[in-house]
Structures are given as C-alpha cells and as structure tokens.
Amino acid sequence: MKLRHEHHSGNEFITRHMHSEAAVALVLAGGYEEAGDRGRFHVRAGDVVIHAPYDTHLDRFTSSGAHILDLPICPHSGFSAGFGRVSNPDLIARAAERNLAEAAELLFSAFAAYSSFSIDWPEQLAQGLSKNPDLSLGAWAREFGLASATVTRGFKQVFGITPSRFRAHCRAKLAWNMVCGTNLPLSHLAARLGFSDQAHMTRALRSLTGKTPSLCRAQGQMDSRQLHCSCS
Fold first, then answer.
1. How far apart are CA 217 and CA 159, in angstroms?
2. What is the predicted pLDDT for the residue at 1?
3. Which is deepest, 44, 102, 107, 135, by most CB within 10 Å?
4. Do residue 96 and residue 193 come from a single domain?
5. Which of 185, 171, 191, 172 is nearest to 214 (CA)?
6. Are 43 and 69 in contact (CB under 8 A)?
7. pLDDT (tens digit, 9 = 90+) per residue, 153-197?
8. Whether 18 and 43 share a structural domain
9. In this prediction, what percent of the chain has a pLDDT beyond 70?
10. What's the pTM?
C-alpha cells in the first residue's frame, strides 16, 4: 500500500468494505462517521483511525465531506488498531510526502488515544462481539431489554451487517490473529475459538484472507522475522 489522499464529497456514503492491509487514516479536513469492527466513531480533522489487516467498516460523511490521508503501516509493528487524535495533522502530512517511515514515527509519537466516548447499544454489542464472538445474542438482547428483531434491525442500520454475520467476521479475524501469532495446533485453535471443526475454521480464514491457515501462519512468521531484522 502506498501513501494515498482521499477526497470525499458532502453526505457521501461508502458501504461496508475491508482493509486487506494495516493502515492509518489521518483526517486532515471535514469529518465522517465510521461504523466498523470496534464500534462507531464520529471522526473530525486531527483524528486518527488505525486499521488492522482485514478490518471492515462503512463510512457516512458529513455535509462538508472530508480529506483523509492513508498511511501504510507494518501489520506487526506493535501498534494496535484504535481511535485517537494528533495535535498537528498537517505536520504529519508534510512529513509523509518526504518519508513514510518518518511520518509514521511522528504520528505515533504524537498519538493520544481516546480513553472513552459515548456509545449506544449497537456500539456496545459490536464491542462485545469483537471481544467475545461466543457472546449469546439472545442473552444480550434480554439483558438490555430489547427484542431480538429490534437488535438485528437496529444493528444492521448502523453497521450494514447483521449481528450474526458481524460475529462470524470477528471470529475469523480472531482466528487469523491466533494462527499468525501462535504455534498452537490448528485443531486446538478451531475448538478453542468455537468453530465446529478445523475445516470450518479453514473456510472462515479462506473467506477472510483468501489463504489457508497454514499459509497465513507461514506469512505471519515471515513478516515477524522481517520486522525483527529491520529493528535490529
């Protein structure tokens, strides 16, 4: 992925889509609402959204549109996906035109994560499913005093996907992280993550990444070695 400037018109809507690579979205002007794997964020100039590989989200832009700078980052650089702010986005944008590594270092040294923000029940459910794909939707709906149909309809209005499909995506992403980050047997991981069997996990990972679990693991180990060499 290369440095990229995005210019979006007022009230533009982008349907749910996936980032195949890790990247940082730095908002230089305007604003938008992003509804994705970790919840819903209202983003404005100076805000930063860090996307992990295979993150999915949709975007609803404000009437002023937005100018966004997309910076590529190493997927195993140690920077976690999240949402925060920098005080001087234009300084980082100018640095990015000269040197991407310098810009990334400058951004993360100035990055201040948002510790809390107000959320409604769809965001709470999204965060719950992201942390625990085994979360029972029926039990969650009863706890919040909501009908199951209301949960399905309201969640889809915000995130563009049903809670069940969102959960399947979260489970596949968790599997990808554990396959790449551990040497645990694949059959053990499949059982631990709630898949019906190893073949079920293989199908989920192939749907998410286009690769088998074995290939994901080999590529993750290669990326980690390259990062270690570049930092030595």
1. 30
2. 61
3. 107
4. no
5. 185
6. no
7. 999 999 999 999 999 999 999 999 999 989 999 999 999 999 999
8. yes
9. 91
10. 0.87
